[in-house]
Amino acid sequence: MTELLAPAGNIEALDAAIGEGADAVYMGLKSFNARLRSSNFAWNQFEAAVQSVHRLGKKIYVTVNTVCEENETERLYRFLSYLNKIGPDGIIVQDFGVIRMCQEFFPDLELHASTQMNVESAAAANLLCKQGVKRVVVARELGLEEIRAIKSKTNAEIEMFVHGALCVSESGLCLFSSYLGGKSANRGVCTQACRRIYSAEIPGTVANGYYFSPCDLELISHVPELMEAGVDSFKIEGRMKSAEYVGAVTAAYRYVMDHWHEDKKGSIAEGKRILSTDFARSKTDYWYGFKSVEEGVDSAGEKILNPKQAGGTGIFLGKINQTRPASASEKEQYASSLERKQEFSIQMATISGGDYNSDPGDSIRLHKKDDTGRESHKIRVLSEDEKGSRWIDIPSGFSKGDSVYLLQTKSMSKRYKRVLPSDLSKFRKQPGPERLPVLDLTPLAKNELNWFPEGLYIQVSTVADAHIVSSLHPVRLIIELNSETSYDLLNKDSPAKPLLPYSKKMLVISLDPFFAEGKSEEFENVVSVLVEKGYSTFIVNNIAHINILKKYKVKLIAGPYLYTFNRWAVSFLENSNIMALQSPAENSEKNLEAIFENSAERSRVLVSVFSYPVLFRMRFKLPGDYDFTYFSDKEGMGFKVNSTPDGSFVMPEYPFSLLDKMETLKSKGWTHQLIDFSKTKILKSDIRNLVSIIQKHEFIEGASRFNWKNGFYNPEKMEAYQAAQARNAQASKDNKKRK
To answer: What are the backbone dihedrals phi and psi of residue 315, each rounded to the nearest 5 degrees, phi first?
Structure first.
C-alpha cells in the first residue's frame, strides 16, 4: 500500500498532517536539514513527536539532507547518535558522508536517499541499496514510464514528490543561490534565485520577467497510475507552508488514494475540489503526458514556466498603502491568537488596489517591490480607524508599495487534535559530547594513480574546442559526453584517422550529472562502444555511472557533482574503488585543506582554477519565446543561458578564476589543476589572453572567487554574531545608565 507522507515544518502542521490522515510525516531539526528557514523542531518537541506519532501507528522521518563540511563532522556524529537513541523511522540524507558514518556507527538508522542526492535511475537506486539505503526519493524531473521502469528494476523503496513547489534546476545540482553569496541549496539556505525577476536582452529591447520561476507540481490526477506502478510513498512538499495548506493537500491526496478503486473519475474530481482552496502558484503535472523523453525535453519548459506570473504566488490583493507600528492592544490580540508562545515582530498596514478584503485567518504572501524578499504570513488582527480604513497585521520589514497576495482564506482554517502532549518536561534528550573517531583516508599504493598525472587539465564541450585548446598543452584533455560529442566520438573517430589531436590515453570522458532512466539504455550502449574504442578514463558525476562502469576495466574520477565536502564522503567513494576526485565547485580552500591534510592526499584531487560554473541545469529546452542569451538581475549581475538538446544551462557572464593563484596552489600541494571551458564557445584569441593572464599572475576583472575564500554562508555563526552584537549593545546601554 502506498504511504502518504506529509511535511511537518512546525507543530501545527504536524497536527494537520496527522489529523487529515497522513501515514507518515517528515520534519527537520535545527541543523543539517535543507529547510533551515522553516520553524523546525526543538529537541524536546522532536522526542515527544516520535513517541506520540508512534503511539498513533504512524511513522516519522527526519531530514539530514545537507552536505557537511569537515569541521562539522563531529557535530554530525553527535546528531546521528542522538537520532539513533530517539528512534525515528528513517533519516533522509544527501551527503555520502552521512551514509558512511551510519554504516560504521549507526547501522540501525534506516537511510532514505534525499532527492538532493540526484537519483533518477534504477542503476543509482541499486548502488545505494547495496550500501544500505532502504528508500530513494527520486528526482522530480521524471515521467510515469521512467518511474515504472525504476520500480521494476530495483529492490529499493521508491518515494516521489506528488505536490508542491518545484525547483527549476535538476535536484541537488543548483549552484545559483550559493554563487550569489554562499547561501547554498545544498546547505538548506536557498534564496530562491529562480523566483527573482530578471531583465533579458531580447532583440530590439530589454524585457523583464520571472523567466525561471516554475509552477507548482500537482499529480493528483496521476495517483491511480502511480499506485499501480508500485510507488511506495507519495511525498507532499511544504515544510515552510502553513498548517492549513498541509491539511488541505493531505486531505485531497488521502481521499483519492482511498477511493479511486471504487470511483476513479469522481475521486479525482473531489480531490481537485479540495485543492481548489490553494491560491498559490499555478499548477503543472510537469513531465507527464509526453510520448518520449525527447518530447519532454522539447516541451516541458512550456508546461512549468510563465515569465509573467509575479513570482507565481497567489491572488493579487493589492499593494501596501500605509504602515504604522502595532499598538499594545493589537500586539496583545496577536499574541493571544497564537497556539503557543513564540517571538513575533509585526506592524499594521492598509492594502489597496485589489478586489478582496482580507480578514483574520487568511494566509497572505508579501513581495518586496525590489524583489529582494518574500514572506508568507497568517493575518490575526484587524482594526478599523475613524476613516473606515482597514488595518491588518503584516511582518516587519515590508513597506509602502510592496505587493500582497492571497494564499488561503479563513474558511480553510481548521483546528486539529494536538499530537504532542502539553507537558514536555520529561523529554530531555539532546546530542551529547561524544568524540568522533579519527578517519584516515586510504593511502595510495605505489603507481596506483600513475594514470592521473600532475599538471594542467583542460575541459571542453565540443571536438572543435578540443583542437583550439591544444596550444595550452594539457597533460589530459577532458571532453564532455553530450549529444554532439557522442555522435562525433562514435561515428567519426577511427584508428586510421583519429578525431582528436590527442592519444586516447590522454583523453578523459566527463559524464553528465543528470542520469535519467529514460536514457539509461542509450547511455550503456554509448559507453560500451567508447570502451571498446579504447577510451579508458571517465569522470563520473552520478552514482549510476559508478554502478554501470564497474563491469569495465576503466579508471574513474569522482566529478564535482559527487559531493565530497568531508573525509567520510571521500571514504564512501573509496569503498567504490574511486581514489581520484574533482573538488565540488562550491568548496572553499579552507575546507579542502581540512579534508586533504598533506601532499600525498592532495595528489588525488583535481582543483578547478577557471570555469563558468553551471548555476541552473534544466532537463528541458527553454520555451520558443525565450529569445535571449544574456540576462541580468536587479543588482546588474549578468548571466547567460544556453538551450540545447541536452537541456538548458544558466552560467555567470564572468568566470570563476584562480588563475592568479596557480603557483601558490601548486606550492600547497594542489598540483592537478583544471581550466574548464564546458558549455563555452572558445576562440583562439581567448586562449592567447588566458596564457598572458597565467604568465602575469593576473586577476581577471569581473571574475568571481565563488566560495573559495569565504566558504558557505553559516546561519548559525551569523545568529551567534548578531546575538553577541545585541549583548554588546545592551551592555553599552546599561553602562551609560549606571554612569
So the answer is: -90, 130
Residue 54, classified by CB atoms within 10 Å of its CB into exposed (0-12), middle (13-18) or buried (19+), is: middle
Q: Which of 77, 67, 80, 72 is nearest to 33 (CA)?
A: 67
What Cα–Cα distance (Å) separates residue 634 from each residue in 193, 253, 371?
12, 39, 8
How many C-beta atoms lie closer than 10 Å to residue 464's C-beta?
12
DSSP state for residue 676 in the 8-state scheme: E
In terms of Cβ atoms closer than 10 Å to its own Cβ (0-12, 13-18, 19+), residue 727 is: exposed
| pLDDT tier for residue 546 given thresholds of 50, 70 and 90 | very high
| H/E stretch holding 92 | strand 90-93
Global pTM value: 0.90
Sheet holding 205-209, edge to edge: 205-209, 198-202, 630-632, 638-644, 647-652, 616-618
**Which among 460, 457, 456, 458 is positioned nearest to 680, based on CA atoms?**
460
For the chain, give the percent of residues with pLDDT over 70.
95
Q: How far apart are CA 518 and CA 146, in angstroms?
A: 6
Is the pLDDT at 409 greater than 80? The verdict is no
Q: Do 209 and 197 form a contact (C-beta atoms < 8 A)?
A: yes
List of residues 6+ apart from 617 with CB closer than 8 A: 169, 170, 173, 174, 513, 514, 647, 648, 649
- What phi, psi does 9 have (nearest 5°)? -80, -15
Type of residue found at 380: R
**Model confidence at 725, in pLDDT bands (50, 70, 90)?**
low
Residue 581 has pLDDT above 60, yes or no: yes
The residue-averaged pLDDT of 556-573 equals 98
735 torsion bin: left (phi>0), alpha (psi -120 to 50), beta (else):
alpha
Q: State residue 92's pLDDT score.
A: 98
Distance of CA 268 to the CA centre of its chain: 30
Listed in sequence order, the DSSP H helices in 492-542 are 520-533
Distance CA 14, CA 8 (A): 5
C-alpha span between 303 and 306 (Å, rounded):
8
Would you call 656 helix, strand, or coil by DSSP?
strand
Cα of 128 vs its chain's centroid, Å: 19
Q: Write down the residue that cell numbers 499593494 correspond to.
A: 319
In angstroms, the CA 11 to CA 18 distance is 11
Amino acid at 41: F
List, for residues 626-656, the tens digit of each pLDDT value.
Answer: 999 999 999 999 999 999 999 999 999 999 9
Question: Is pLDDT of 80 > 60?
Answer: yes
Q: What is the Cα–Cα distance from 21 to 257, expressed in whole angstroms? A: 11
DSSP 8-state symbol, 119: -
Report the b/e string of 280-306 with b at 16+ CB within 10 A: bbebbbbbbebeebeebbeebbbbbbb
Average pLDDT of the residues of the chain:
93
How far apart CA 5 and CA 162 sit, in angstroms, is 10
The SS3 call for residue 567 is helix
Residue pLDDT, tens place only, 582-592: 999 999 999 99
**Rounded-to-integer distance, Cα 136 and Cα 117, Å:** 9
CA dihedral 396, 402, 405, 409 (to 10 degrees): 40
Burial class (CB in 10 A: 0-12, 13-18, 19+), 155: exposed
Q: In what order do the strands lie in the sheet with 382-384?
A: 374-378, 363-367, 403-408, 315-325, 346-353, 390-395, 382-384
